[in-house]
């Protein structure tokens, strides 16, 4: 074995090699062992550096530094990658893998099932269940999962999208931008048995059966500037209730500010009496999101929060108790409210929709 002062192969790097090694050494996606080998070679560059010095500077064994120094001097960059090791030969060839992928993507089970499982694919292709699962994971195929979507059929989709997104990204001066909507059918459900409390090793338990004591409709307006919520609960969901809520907003907003109101295409929002009320108030400006595009209305995000944190797990003996809970939650929410930060531009949304349409070309859309 060489002594501590022995110098091994001298390494001279070209500019291209040095750039490649620096990129490998700094990479966070490559295996750590490969990045370390690149750092060893970089540290060994020059005629006056012993492997002992390199090993000490990198905190590794001298033999490790000698090994990769010698291998790089002999075979250059290719030597840093692991060689094929002996082991059991493959039992599934490329043709079988291709058949598995094509079967998953382009066919349905013959037994009438709507989608493949690892077991049914194993039976169909003759590949073991565990191997099927491994290849599905490698190719990111998930036949057991499904995601729902709905494309807007609004002929003015692009114009309405740019209008609403423009309000989020560049709100007008001397104006208040409000996202307004209703959450109808908020049910006052009373569980038939008390909840089982959260404990070590088990989650909170809720009975699936309940007594229904009625419903209420939550009208809410989200202030895009600061995230504050103005909310009212009403027994019905008609243009009369919507108009009453608009009057409440009109009283709450300072008279010197314009009101830009983002709403969906529900019929009560376009009722003749609502239009007449708006016509008498020129400071009001209505902005309608495209059909099937409620995700553009930021108040929907608040509805998800209040449903998850205040309504879904609750047990209410009456609509009055549910309404009290909702108003209490809104009051607490407004004490520490923060605005939702909208970052997507209209162009980025249209590009994403374009990619989706590209995936489903020929599916009747």
TrEMBL record:
<dbReference type="Pfam" id="PF13565">
    <property type="entry name" value="HTH_32"/>
</dbReference>
<dbReference type="InterPro" id="IPR052702">
    <property type="entry name" value="MscS-like_channel"/>
</dbReference>
<dbReference type="InterPro" id="IPR036397">
    <property type="entry name" value="RNaseH_sf"/>
</dbReference>
<dbReference type="InterPro" id="IPR012337">
    <property type="entry name" value="RNaseH-like_sf"/>
</dbReference>
<dbReference type="InterPro" id="IPR047655">
    <property type="entry name" value="Transpos_IS630-like"/>
</dbReference>
<dbReference type="InterPro" id="IPR038717">
    <property type="entry name" value="Tc1-like_DDE_dom"/>
</dbReference>
<feature type="domain" description="Tc1-like transposase DDE">
    <location>
        <begin position="178"/>
        <end position="322"/>
    </location>
</feature>
<dbReference type="InterPro" id="IPR009057">
    <property type="entry name" value="Homeodomain-like_sf"/>
</dbReference>
<protein>
    <submittedName>
        <fullName>Transposase</fullName>
    </submittedName>
</protein>
<dbReference type="Pfam" id="PF13358">
    <property type="entry name" value="DDE_3"/>
</dbReference>
């Amino acid at each position: 074995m060489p002594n501590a002062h022995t110098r091994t192969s001298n390494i001279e790097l070209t500019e291209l090699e040095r750039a490649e090694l620096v990129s490998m050494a700094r990479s966070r996606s490559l295996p750590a062992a490969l990045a370390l080998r690149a750092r060893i070679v970089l540290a060994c560059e020059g005629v006056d550096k012993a492997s002992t010095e390199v090993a000490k500077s990198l905190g590794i064994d001298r033999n490790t530094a000698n090994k990769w120094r010698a291998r790089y001097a002999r075979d250059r960059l290719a030597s840093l990658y692991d060689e094929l090791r002996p082991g059991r030969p493959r039992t599934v060839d490329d043709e079988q893998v291709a058949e598995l992928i094509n079967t998953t993507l382009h066919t349905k089970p013959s037994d009438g099932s709507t989608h493949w499982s690892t077991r049914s694919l194993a039976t169909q292709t003759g590949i073991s269940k565990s191997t099927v699962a491994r290849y599905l994971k490698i190719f990111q195929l998930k036949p057991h999962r499904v995601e729902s979507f709905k494309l807007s059929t609004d002929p003015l989709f692009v114009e309405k999208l740019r209008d609403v997104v423009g309000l989020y990204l560049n709100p007008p001066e001397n104006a208040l931008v409000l996202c307004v909507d209703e959450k109808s059918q908020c049910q006052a459900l009373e569980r038939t048995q008390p909840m089982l409390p959260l404990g070590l090793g088990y989650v909170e338990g809720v009975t699936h059966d309940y007594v229904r004591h009625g419903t209420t409709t939550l009208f809410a307006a989200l202030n895009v500037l600061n995230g504050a919520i103005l909310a009212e609960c009403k027994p019905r969901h008609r243009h009369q209730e919507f108009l009453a809520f608009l009057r409440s907003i009109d009283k709450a907003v300072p008279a010197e500010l314009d009101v830009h109101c983002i709403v969906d295409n529900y019929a009560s929002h376009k009722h003749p009496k609502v239009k007449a009320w708006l016509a008498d108030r020129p400071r009001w400006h209505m902005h309608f999101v495209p059909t099937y595009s409620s995700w553009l209305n930021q108040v929907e995000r608040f509805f998800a929060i209040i449903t998850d944190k205040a309504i879904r797990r609750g047990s209410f003996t009456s609509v009055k108790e549910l309404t009290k809970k909702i108003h209490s939650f809104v009051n607490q929410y407004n004490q520490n409210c923060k605005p939702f930060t909208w970052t997507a531009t209209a162009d980025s949304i249209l590009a994403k929709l374009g990619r989706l349409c590209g995936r489903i070309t020929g599916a009747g859309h």
